[in-house]
Each structure stands twice: as structure tokens, then as C-alpha cells.
Known about the structure:
Order of helices and strands: HHHHHHH
Shape: globular
Oligomer: single chain
Largest sheet: none
Number of strands: 0
Amino acid sequence: xxxxxxxxxxxxxxxxxxxxxxxxxxxxxxxxxxxxxxxxxxxxxxxxxxxxxxxxxxxxxxxxxxxxxxxxxxxxxxxxxxxxxxxxxxxxxxxxxxxxxxxxxxxxxxxxxxxxxxxxxxxxxxxxxx
Length: 130
């Protein structure tokens, strides 16, 4: 079992099909498959380039729907689970939007894809509780 890499919001980067950092580098085919999967799920309105789908981890300057990364930086914590204000309305909204995609993922994904997405995105709360 690989070691988890917990993002600010609780995602497990080590399980994410977009995370493109050694030792989790993805091939061009894997990134293309991820871009196609993101469109199928509804995360993107089109199949994006490999460069656009690849991720090298959360940074404060990156776009984040809930400002989670920036908020963690401002609070001096690595992730929301370490914050004295956890679980604030901001992270609760993040959990809610994430879970709104669960049914669609189950419907359109293969069993293998679902297991990967579940580990990467749908266990945020458990990951933040440690």
C-alpha cells in the first residue's frame, strides 16, 4: 500500500490520476485517459490537454474553488484537519460539492476507476481526521 499524500482539502494525491510528481509520474496515455474520464464525469466540458490535466500538487497561487490551500497557508497548517477552525463552513462546502459527484462517478466509471477516485477524492473527511 502506498503512503498517502494528503492535500489541504483532504484529497489523497498519491491516489489521484492527475498527480504527476515522482514517484507518481503518469504516462501520456494515463493523462489522456484521465482527461477523458474528467469529461465523462463532468469535471470538464471537453477533453483537455495532458499539460492541463496534470497536477503537481496544491500551491497557494493555483486556482482553488474554496480557497482551501490559501486558507491553510494563512492558518499555518498543512491541511484543514490541522486547523483549529476545522470543520469550518468552507471545508464543509468542499465536502458537499465533492460528494455531489459521487453518484455520477459510480455510474460512468469502471470498478477500477471508481476505486481510484474514491481513494483520491471521496475519503477527504477520513483523511483529515487522520
